[in-house]
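During the second half of the funding period, the structural biology subgroup turned its attention to how the target accommodates small molecules. The most pressing case was 2-acetamido-2-deoxy-beta-D-glucopyranose, which had performed well in the primary screen but for which no bound structure existed. We therefore specified the complex as follows and requested a full 3D prediction, including the ligand pose.
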Amino acid sequence: MGRLSCPFVTVFTTIVFITSVEDKPRTEASRDCANPEPSFEQSVIKEMVGVGSDRTKGEKNVSIGNVVVATIFEEFETRLSRLERRLRAIEQPVWQMSSGEEDWEICAEGPCRCQPEIKLVSCWRQDLLDLPAAQLVPRDVLKLDLAGNRLTTLHRDTFLDMTRLNHLDLSDNSIEHLPLNLFFSLHAVARIRLSKNLLGELHRSQFFNTRNLRILDASSNKLRNLPESLFLSTTLLVLLDLSCNRISSFLPGIFHGLTMLEELLLGKNRLSVLPVDLFKDLTSLKYLGLEENRLRELPDELFRTQTSLRELNFRSNQLSEISARLLAPLEQLNSLEMSNNKIARINPTAFQGLVALKELQLGHNRLRNLTPGLFSMSASLERLVLYANGIENLLRGTFQGLSNLTSLFLHSNHLRIMHPDLFQDTPNLRKLQLESNYLSSLPPRILDAVESIEQLRLARNPWHCDCAASYLATWLQRMYLTRVNDTNSSENLGIWEFGAGAVCRGPGTLGGRLLLRLTFHELCEGQWASMKGLVPRLPIDLISGRNVASTDNPFSRNESVSTPNLSRSTIPSQR
Ligand SMILES: *[C@@H]1O[C@H](CO)[C@@H](O)[C@H](O)[C@H]1NC(C)=O
Ligand SMILES: *[C@@H]1O[C@H](CO)[C@@H](O)[C@H](O)[C@H]1NC(C)=O
Ligand SMILES: *[C@@H]1O[C@H](CO)[C@@H](O)[C@H](O)[C@H]1NC(C)=O
Ligand SMILES: *[C@@H]1O[C@H](CO)[C@@H](O)[C@H](O)[C@H]1NC(C)=O
Ligand SMILES: *[C@@H]1O[C@H](CO)[C@@H](O)[C@H](O)[C@H]1NC(C)=O
Ligand SMILES: *[C@@H]1O[C@H](CO)[C@@H](O)[C@H](O)[C@H]1NC(C)=O
């Protein structure tokens, strides 16, 4: 979960909601897709072809024959209902429009609420099936709210002559069809919300006259294909939300001319490829959401003009590789979210252009190794998320250049080996998560470089509690004692109380014990006999109990070896 990414998005979405037509409870529709109930026709068809009512289950478990039948039916249904919807739109009632000062008084008599002081007409949640014909709408209305009703379509004259209208909210209805001329009078409209409806298509001239449009929210509909000229005249668009639809591809020119666009939300669609020129004109883009699509690969030059981009979200796609050039132009990028893909290869120079990066999420991919220096240009990186990959080995220099790194998440990998100098590159590390790996020991002194560490997680590793573990044991004990002594750190105590979760796998009777609780004597007694046959992990001199002060000796300082004689009252007993 992007702790950094969410607030950024929220800023923009909040603007939409707070300044939306009036104060009323809103759900964050644009972030979490609404799950519109399947329409009646759909349910019928699904039943006819034997698809369960559970949509996702049904789509996965349907035989080829049924798919063909379903497609034919769907096509048939689409044509028929398109015709039907147009007819229905023509039959729709229209409310009365008027002009004149006293209009706002009359307006207040209608079923909807009128607020003359802000020129608002609100029919929000009136359970309307049709436009209320009795409602009088003053011609100088600025804000019009029809959200939260049961409208299925609108007559094309519904907004006729509302040339000053600024906000229009049609969200959360059951609108299937928008007549072509519906918005033709809305020269001044800056915000249109169409989210949470049942729109399957938009006409190519739908927004032809809404040249002042800044925010368009068409999320959570059933849009499949968008005509290439849809946004031709809406060149002032700042935010465009098309998330939670069924879009599988874009025509290359669809976003041409949108040089003011700052936020583009395309998440939760069915995109599998993107044309190389798709974002060419979007030079002001700050946020781009492409999460939960089906993207397998991306053209190298896709982001060549996105030098203003701050946040990029590719979570939950099918990407398998990050090329050298794809991300190179993104010099202002703060947050890159690529978790839950199939990334197995990252070009060694793939991140070299990301000089402003603060958060990088690569969790749940297929990485097995990380090239040393991979992140070396991202000196401002603070959070690096690499959990649930297949990383086995962290070489020296893997985190080179990351002097501002505070959080490193490496849990659920296959880590066995970490270079002793690994964390010398990350002196500001505060959180380190290493649980669920294959670590049986840590190199001596590896943690000496991270003095300000606050959280360390070591659980679910096969810790081998022999003499080689005495560095870690001593280190944990020191952390624990410091925290116990510090009267104000009780909130931090929990992390260290159980030795950061380091439980011994073995040897022998030490299995199951907390590493934190073992003394040097317990760890080293009788161990060296068995270790002598192997390459010793500690100098033999030390193992045999003699003090040596060589520079290579991790315990060259006398005091570090003699574990404090911990009384039972200071070290918690193991559960
Ligand atoms: C499809 O559904 C049937 C019964 O509902 C089940 O036995 C079968 O395993 C499913 N097949 C797949 C591929 O999920
Ligand atoms: C590292 O962090 C410090 C303090 O937060 C900040 O002043 C500095 O600019 C950061 N360095 C980089 C390269 O971002
Ligand atoms: C803990 O506090 C005691 C006295 O209160 C002090 O003698 C000892 O040095 C402290 N230990 C650490 C590790 O700070
Ligand atoms: C401990 O916390 C209290 C208030 O919570 C504060 O007044 C006091 O200065 C703190 N002491 C130390 C040693 O940080
Ligand atoms: C280790 O301790 C002995 C005596 O306890 C002392 O003579 C020696 O100088 C110490 N070595 C170091 C490196 O502190
Ligand atoms: C350590 O504690 C044991 C009993 O818990 C005691 O017999 C021994 O003398 C202590 N050693 C030191 C160095 O304090």
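Two results from this model are relevant to the next phase. Residues 1-31, 35-59, 529-575 have pLDDT under 50 and may be disordered. The pocket of 2-acetamido-2-deoxy-beta-D-glucopyranose (ligand 6) is lined by residues 565 (CB under 6 Å).
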